[in-house]
Write a structure and sequence with these properties.
Mean pLDDT: 94
Radius of gyration: 21 Å
Shape: elongated
Low-confidence stretches: 116-121
Strand order of the largest sheet: 22-23-1-24
Distance between the termini: 6 Å
Number of helices: 14
Strand content: 25-35%
Helix content: 25-40%
Structural class: alpha/beta
Largest sheet: 4 strands, mixed
Number of strands: 24
């Protein structure tokens, strides 16, 4: 099993490039199912979830090639197997994103209920409700979503809760539906805008992506195209928090400050000096960070995917902070691991109260989910002594070569394999 070993106490300094966004690339890869022509996707990160999605699409009959680094070409001219089996999707909840495209293009789909990180319930009822409103017959049997639709029809769909994958799934399905579909209470994340931009390049008619009302006018067919995936705002935020926590000075290339206003506001509140231009962000930290209260909420508010990283920052900040998690009910599991490093944290319901201390202690800890892994890396970078992080396969699902990038910034970090 692979582990990370970190020797803490060294500030991050230098510059690195940010990878493409996993959460944008995954639905864009699924968009290839909507056309018989080739879709070429650039700036795709080299991650385990991306590899899993490629394998899933290949077993459905999609021809997938990687002509160059970060570039994937997909051609779904002949779909042969309209099933997403449990064995292939049990580690990746994004597999649900093949449901809408398959149903719209092929008229049927048999999709295993998705897995992923154990951070809380991720119900697919909003996906099912929306597709049923568009005329699909859906049943859940033996852990699979079995869906059939001779032809999807446009509909007005109001989400009961804001759902990113639900918005993406129904937006893709609606591109080939008859008539006009309106998605209300839609998610507004930048990754949804990125998917909409890709679909428009393929000939889709979509208006309002990035707002809470998205309108899609169905077209008979979509064509192929070429698209460049947006930068990963969560990777960007993670490195910025790491630099703030270690008293660093870093420049991040191939990213944009427009993608994470709420995160940058909180880092400035912590004491970081931040400058940015069209495709770079520079952060310089000259003093001990101040504690920051935050509350997660759907975009454009503070992202749940950055909550764990900020908790590690608060552990060594001056003062006391309260972090409230409103999105996932189990997304405070990293607290126990941080307490192994002598963090002073109390949990009350969905809130954590963090009392900053001068230094964390290096310790043997275990990652419980993707973003918790990142929080432990940040904690290890600030701690005195050595930190060993187990179960880093979670980390590899969402961060491309994180130890290589951190090493380039001066971190003492290495990967090891042990039984």
């Amino acid at each position: 099993m692979q582990k990370l070993i970190i020797q803490g106490g060294f500030p991050l300094e230098g510059q690195i490039s940010i990878s493409g966004a996993k959460n944008a690339a995954l639905p864009i890869l699924c968009a290839a199912l909507l056309t018989r022509e080739s879709l070429v996707v650039d700036n795709v990160p080299d991650l385990q979830d991306i590899t899993t999605m490629q394998s899933l699409l290949q077993q459905m009959g999609v021809n997938v090639t990687t002509p160059a680094s970060s570039r994937i070409e997909l051609c779904a001219s002949h779909l042969t197997h309209l099933v997403a089996p449990y064995e292939m999707v049990k580690t990746m909840r994004a597999a649900i994103l093949v449901l809408g495209p398959l149903l719209a293009r092929a008229g049927e789909a048999n999709i295993s209920l998705p897995g992923g990180c154990a951070i809380g319930l991720r119900p697919v009822d909003q996906h099912i409700k929306g597709l049923q409103a568009m005329g699909a017959d859906i049943a859940i049997k033996h852990g699979y979503i079995q869906a059939v639709a001779k032809k999807l029809r446009g509909a007005r769909i109001v989400f009961d809760i804001v759902t990113v994958t639900g918005t993406e799934n129904l937006m893709m399905a609606a591109t080939l539906a008859e008539g006009i579909t309106t998605l209300e209470n839609a998610a507004r994340e930048p990754e949804i805008v990125d998917l909409a931009n890709c679909l428009r390049k393929m000939g889709a008619k979509i208006h309002g992506a990035g707002t809470d009302i998205i309108t899609i006018e169905g077209v008979p067919v979509l064509h192929g195209g070429e698209y460049n995936v947006m930068p990963d705002r969560i990777e960007t935020g993670t490195f910025l928090v790491a630099a703030t926590a270690t008293g660093g000075d870093i420049r991040l290339l191939n990213t944009s400050s427009n993608l994470l206003d709420a995160v940058l506001d909180k880092l400035t509140e912590a004491g970081a000096h931040i400058e940015s231009a069209e495709n770079w962000i520079h952060l310089h930290m000259t003093k001990k960070p101040q504690s920051i209260n935050l509350r997660t909420a759907p975009y454009p508010a503070f992202p749940t995917d950055m909550q764990a990283q900020f908790m590690s920052l608060n552990c060594i900040a001056d003062g006391t902070a309260i972090i409230t998690e409103t999105i996932f009910e189990n997304r405070l599991m990293h607290v126990q691991e941080l307490k192994r490093m002598n963090a002073d944290i109390e949990v009350e319901g969905n809130a954590a109260i963090i009392h900053g201390i001068p230094k964390l202690d290096g310790a043997h800890v275990m990652a419980t989910d993707l973003r918790a892994s990142a929080s432990l890396v940040i904690a290890g970078l600030t701690a005195q002594g050595e930190t060993l992080i187990d179960r880093i396969y979670h980390l590899d699902r969402g961060y491309e070569n994180i130890e290589g990038k951190l090493s380039a910034l001066g971190a003492r970090i290495r990967r090891t394999t042990s039984s």
